[in-house]
Amino acid sequence: MIVPAEVVDYDPRWPLWFADISARLTPYLAEVPHVCEHVGSTAVPGLAAKPSIDVDIVVPSPSLVPLVIGRLTDAGYRHEGDQGIPGREAFALPPDAVHYHHLYVVVEGNKAHRDHVVLRDHLRADAADRERYAARKRELAHLLTTDRTAYVDGKGALVEELIAKAGGSRAADASGRSGA
Q1: Which CATH entry fits the domain spanning 14-165: 3.20.20.70, 1.10.260.40, 3.40.50.300, 3.30.460.10?
Q2: Residue 107 near residue 113 (C-beta atoms within 8 A)
Q3: pTM over the 0.85 mark
Q4: What digits encode the pLDDT tens for the residues 50-71?
Q5: Which of 67, 139, 140, 177 measures 20 to 30 Å from 9, CA to CA?
C-alpha cells in the first residue's frame, strides 16, 4: 500500500473508512473490553489532512495491552513498539489492509489517549485553530516525499500549543507526534 505523501482537503469518506477499519478489527478484539476511536486530522470535519486514518484502540487497563498486541499480530499487524511516545503502542499495516491507517493501542485516560482526543475535539470546535493547523500542514507538505520526520517536527510546536490551549498535557519532548 502506498504511504500518503500529500495533504488534501477534507474527504467525507474518511469516517466511512474508519468504520470499515474498525469493523475489520472487531473479530480479533472480541471479548476484550475496548473502544475504537477515530483520532487525528481525518477525524476533524473540514480539516485538510494526509488521507491516512488514525485509529486508537482504547483499553481500560494496562494489563490488557499485551493481549491486544497479540490479537492484532494475529490479524496481520506488526507491532512497532511505542515509537518514542510512551503509552502508545504502534502497528504496521497488514498486507491486506484496505485503507491506509495508523493503528495505536492506548490505555483509557493516559497521556497519549488524552492528547489524541483533546486535540481532535479542540480542532472540531475551533475553526480558527483548525485553519491554522491546516495552513501549517500545507506549508510543510512538500516534506512528505523527502523528510517525514521534518514534517512531523515542523508541526510539533503548534500541536503542543493547541493541546495545551485545549487543556491537555504538554509532551516532555514537544515532538508533536500526536497522530494528527
Answers
A1: 3.30.460.10
A2: yes
A3: yes
A4: 999 999 999 999 999 999 999 9
A5: 177
